[in-house]
Design a protein that fits this description.
This protein is an alpha/beta fold. The protein is built from 16 helices and 26 strands.
């Protein structure tokens, strides 16, 4: 695919040229909602770019951006690209030790933190005394103080550290194949890797997405997924620039439902956990079969909900359909910028993740691993040539996911190669298939299957709140019912009831909602072992 875009920043310039006074962004700013036009947004980006230059950032330098979602994040990301530097966004939940480790690994010359408290935590390490890294921060505390290490000064006009000349010229567009960003993967298994993406990678994926799911200038979208993750960055942020719709940035995950109702979005991107919350709320309130209830909860104007990041339970998809809300599924990885496949309103199949997006190719290897190639596929892993070679078969990228392509071109994922369980009996079992079946029960909130090098499988189950008091034997019976048509070795031999949900806060989920299997199994190792011992005793008695 030959993209018609020349750079991410050119998307902003084009939008300013077409509709300078149209509202572009609405966000919460110092205890009040505030909106910016496209022209005002460009001025903020130009000012932030001047501040970065003033701090000594040069084209090609790596700049770490460690912050929660906020309007300053968006401006900083675009400003980094404006001057040709390389953005390295890190999740706000990462501890300072990991931020320092990633900063050292990429050789960052500057780190932008959320606030002065975060900045202080980064600077407590004595090793930083020898570092050449410069630190700036946003401000979420007070508008009263001015400090030389703040990127945005509180004058109400978005003025930044450096004096910004009125005739500041836009930067020359980046080379399409130059590195634009390094994204450190969540690392469900093994150590995180730094994914290098270019302007071409990102721009080609934006074009692919908009060909399948067009956005219009009249669309309103609420962004709440972490902008440090590629799903939100490409599918929320950059498609917003390309389409010229309005972006409303939610205040936080805690307020997102209220923000959605007040903003009346027409388009939402989310992960399964988000969409399941509405289903569970409807269950708890006895509103499952109330027509129009879901549309009302989503603000009344919803046109499309788009879901990615993890498998969507079939019963949730069916319920959205019964409520007249279009819920699209798709699939991708950080390494592919991210989208590889997507459904469309007129092209959907239950359980599938859509068809291959325009400009991208997919094929299945002999072991059914999904291979992909296209201009959206990463440049490689930063400072890891061996790791890069390991995930390529010629010019085909090995996704690590297994799947099935049907006669209509729909892809259905069947598991992760690295997550296969090998039992003592030599059986290879895909845990995600069994988990998907278990999650189709409305009683189960979350689950994870274990059993590697054991005689039989166990399931860690997080019950829905209203079913937490059920006896373990009842969960065994439920599992048997859900898996009745699977083979004997795919049945659940014992169950561990988990009271605390798997979450990002306890480091048991990745940002996109995937299970951190090694961490979960380690955290509950004693309970798992006790459950296996109890199951063995019961088998002996039988």
């Amino acid at each position: 695919m030959q993209t018609g875009f020349t750079s991410i920043c050119s998307l902003l310039l084009e939008r300013v040229a077409k509709s300078p006074q149209t509202t572009s962004l609405t966000a919460f700013d110092h205890e009040a909602w505030r909106s910016w036009t496209w022209s005002e947004l460009q001025q903020l980006v130009v000012g932030a770019a001047a501040s970065l230059r003033h701090a000594g950032v040069q084209p090609g330098d790596r700049v770490v951006l460690w912050s929660e979602n906020r309007w300053e994040w968006i401006v900083a990301d675009l400003a980094i690209q404006w001057i040709g530097a390389v953005g390295v966004p890190l999740h706000a939940s990462l501890p300072p030790s990991q931020v320092k480790a990633f900063s050292d690994h990429c050789g960052a010359v500057l780190t932008i933190a959320s606030n002065s408290n975060a900045l202080a935590k980064l600077q407590t390490d004595q090793k930083q005394a020898e570092s050449k890294c410069v630190y700036l921060f946003f401000d979420n505390e007070s508008q009263e103080t001015r400090r030389k290490d703040r990127l945005f000064q509180p004058d109400g006009d978005g003025q930044t550290l450096a004096d910004v000349p009125d005739d500041e010229a836009p930067a020359e567009p980046c080379n399409l194949d130059s590195m634009t960003t390094i994204l450190y993967t969540s690392g469900t298994t093994g150590a995180p890797k730094g994914v290098m993406l270019s302007q071409r990678n990102l721009l080609s994926n934006i074009q692919s997405i908009l060909e399948v799911l067009p956005l219009y200038t009249t669309d309103v979208r609420v962004g709440f997924l972490p902008l440090s993750h590629i799903f939100a960055r490409t599918c929320d942020l950059y498609t917003w620039l390309a389409s010229g719709c309005q972006l409303v940035l939610a205040r936080s995950m805690a307020s997102v439902f209220e923000d959605i109702q007040n903003s009346h979005p027409t388009y939402l991107n989310g992960v399964p956990y988000f969409y399941e919350k509405f289903f569970r709320q409807a269950q708890q309130e006895g509103r499952i079969e109330d027509p129009g209830w879901l549309r009302q909860q989503l603000g009344g104007q919803i046109r499309i909900c788009n879901c990615g990041g993890a498998p969507l339970p079939d019963h949730v998809q069916r319920w959205y359909d019964s409520q007249g809300v279009t819920l699209i599924t798709g699939y991708g990885l950080t390494e592919t910028s991210p989208v590889l496949t997507s459904s469309a309103p007129s092209q959907m199949k239950l359980g599938a993740v859509g068809r291959v997006a325009p400009g991208i190719e997919i094929r299945l290897a002999e072991d059914n691993e999904v291979l992909a190639r296209g201009q959206n596929v990463m440049m490689g892993y930063y400072k890891d040539e061996e790791g890069t070679r390991a995930v390529f078969d010629g010019d085909w990228f090995r996704t690590g996911d297994t799947g099935v392509l049907d006669a209509d071109g729909f892809l259905t994922l069947t598991g992760r190669k690295k997550e296969l369980i090998v039992t003592n009996g030599g059986k290879n079992i895909d845990p995600s298939l069994i988990e998907h079946r278990l999650l189709s029960s409305s009683k189960i909130h979350q689950c994870m299957v274990v059993g590697d090098r054991r005689d039989f499988l166990a399931a860690l189950i997080v019950p829905e709140a209203s079913f937490e008091d059920d006896e373990p034997s009842q969960w065994r019976t439920l599992a048997e019912r859900q898996l009745h048509d699977l083979s004997r070795y795919e049945q659940i031999g014992c169950v561990v009831i988990v009271s605390e949900p798997f979450s990002l806060a306890n480091d048991q989920l990745t940002v996109k909602g995937s299970l951190r299997r090694q961490k979960i199994e380690q955290d509950y190792s004693d309970s798992i072992e006790a459950s296996y011992q109890q199951a063995r005793r019961e088998r002996i008695r039988r």
